[in-house]
Amino acid sequence: METQLTWYGQSAFKIVTASGNVLLVDPWLANPVFNRGKEEIAALKRVDLILITHGHSDHVGDAVEIGKRTRAKLVATYDLSAAMTTVLGYPAELADTETTGHFGGTLNLLDGDVMVTFVPAWHGTAVEKNENSPPYYGGNPSGLIIAIRGGPTIYHTGDTDLFSDMALVSQFNKIDIMLVCIGDHFTMGPARAAEAVKLVTPRTVIPMHYGTFAVLSGTPEAFNHELKQRNLQAELRVMNIGETITLESS
Question: What pLDDT score does 153 carry?
Answer without folding.
Answer: 98
